[in-house]
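Table 4 source record.
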Amino acid sequence: MDNPGVEIKDAQPMTGRMQAYESFRQQILEARLKPGQFVSQRHLMEILHLPLGAVREVIPRLEAARLLVTVPKRGLQIAHVDFKLIRNAFQIRQMIEKEAVINFVDIVADDELERMETSHRDILARALAPTPDTLLDRDTQKVDWGMHDRMVDCLGNEMLSEIYRVNSLHVRLIKIDAELVRPMRIVPAMEEHLSFIAALKKRDKNAAVSLIAQHVENSRKRVLEGLL
């Protein structure tokens, strides 16, 4: 089956604001910025390695995305994780990913599904291994979110992809202690992904949509269990 993939455009030079946003995003992905943490513009300059002008330019974008809020007399605060944020973030995931799966099951190539399955089985084996693996969580995020991002990008809607990625940053702010990650998140998530990939390989659209919806709901429940 042919896979049209996603159109690749010529790389455009990044503006200072784009660089600041990407650096901020990376700080969240690497858990260097914590939910509810207060930061100053000077602190952002230091951790983003960018001049004050670029930092000031990106603040309105981060506020619009609700990743940052200005608190009078206290400074800038990273989005605070609460039950409302969790509900909203996972509701957005449900809506977008269901639509993405309906499209993805028709266009994804068999060889891509084979590669996807292999990478998931590798992560699952590492998660179940008795020896510690310091790179497991990092590699899991690449495989896990890589699949979700790929499906959404295949819709070919840049606005939707941007909304989804901003929402993903909200989800990733919700961190579970590293010692709980392996048994609570990685193993069940990989097992759920593998069942979903099996449905994709069968081109079973109804099963695929049902499985991704259940996976997102299970992820939400695991987050709540971890926080409680």
